[in-house]
Design brief:
The protein is an alpha+beta fold. The chain has nine helices and 20 strands. A hairpin with a 5-residue loop joins strand 10 and strand 11.
């Protein structure tokens, strides 16, 4: 374990916000967490950081930043039809997707190019292009900072929802994920439910679609719409796609026939937050160095020296505008620290 004081987090958050943490512990073994517990380190505020791709820092973090650097993945079970993988929390998610694709294992190819590490995936129940982590999730092992014990969670324990889990509610800031276990298929299961993917493969015989083709299509679609954090600092989708009553959604659809609408069931429907923001005229708009991305209105970016408060201010103006126009409240997907 490497413990440092007044640690600069700018290289470790995708918004590129200049901010310090009072302490930072770089974890190379889960037993390091036990050592921190014995020292009483978890009695202060602490924050787990992978790539901080879903965090907006507003000020100095006067606590302990924990960076899991534990790497490794192993096959724990394999049959002719499926494979079960255990992945350490410090593995980069995008590399894990490439590893699965290279081995012709289906299930996470639609989640390609999502920034962050494996340990963060269940916290957020990451999802994209018609797929979510919960679709392949088996279990996880986590460290309980209240008791100093390790605990296993199965899918039901995690209470996954739309970009949500028990670790964002009743267990918020309590457990630190050490590893996750997922189940992938050796049988071709192309998921083209998302409109952009179905349009990409329109006219293609589904039986000829290979795993790598879907991964590459997702990469191409994402790259055409979303900025690379290495080039333009951003945290991905800033807001969740709002879920509203189906009756309300259908009334809006009558007024705006072009509005993307995803019916969940008879009572609930999902509306594209990016579309709502764009209709309010925010796409490409800039206030100082805080801006709305010119290709995807759902993404707020740091064009240089924006502070976290600058980006938050912009997001609040956007949310106010959407509520005034559509009577829909936008909920942040980004975590404020």
């Amino acid at each position: 374990m490497n413990l440092k004081s007044d640690f600069c987090l700018k290289p470790f958050n995708t918004f590129g916000i200049e901010v310090l943490a009072r302490q930072c512990a770089q974890i190379t073994d889960c037993n390091d967490l036990t050592e921190l517990y014995k020292k009483g380190s978890f009695k202060q505020d602490f924050l787990v950081i992978g790539e901080a791709s879903n965090i907006l820092f507003l000020s100095r973090f006067d606590g302990l930043a924990i960076m899991p650097l534990i790497r490794g993945k192993e096959i724990v079970e394999e049959t002719d039809h499926q494979v079960v993988l255990k992945i350490q929390s410090g593995e980069y998610w995008s590399s894990l997707v490439d590893y699965a694709v290279d081995n012709n294992w289906w299930g996470i190819e639609n989640l390609s190019m999502i920034p962050g590490k494996a340990g963060a995936a269940p916290i957020q129940n990451i999802g994209a292009y018609g797929a979510e982590l919960k679709d392949v999730f088996v279990s996880l092992e986590a460290f309980d900072t209240k008791t100093g014990e390790f605990k296993n969670f199965n899918k039901n324990d995690c209470k996954f929802g739309y970009r949500d889990s028990v670790f964002k509610s009743s267990y918020k800031s309590r457990f630190i994920v050490c590893s996750i276990t997922i189940k992938l298929s050796k049988i071709a299961k192309p998921n083209l439910s998302y409109r952009a993917l179905s349009e990409f493969f329109a006219g293609t015989d589904k039986s000829t679609i290979r795993l790598k083709m879907i991964r590459d299509a997702v990469n191409q679609i994402r790259s055409s719409k979303l900025p690379d954090p290495q080039i333009i600092k951003n945290g991905g989708s800033f807001f969740k796609n709002p879920i509203v009553k189906t009756s309300m959604a259908e009334n809006l659809k009558k007024k705006y026939p072009e509005m993307p609408l995803y019916k969940i069931d008879q009572k609930k429907s999902k509306i594209a937050a990016g579309w709502l923001i764009e209709q309010c005229g925010w796409k490409g708009k800039r206030i100082g160095d805080a801006a709305v991305h010119e290709k995807q209105a759902l993404v707020l970016v740091n064009l240089g020296k924006a502070k976290g408060s600058d980006i938050l201010h912009l997001s609040e103006k956007i949310a106010e505008s959407v509520f005034k126009t559509f009577n829909i409240k936008l909920e942040k997907e980004i975590q404020l620290v």
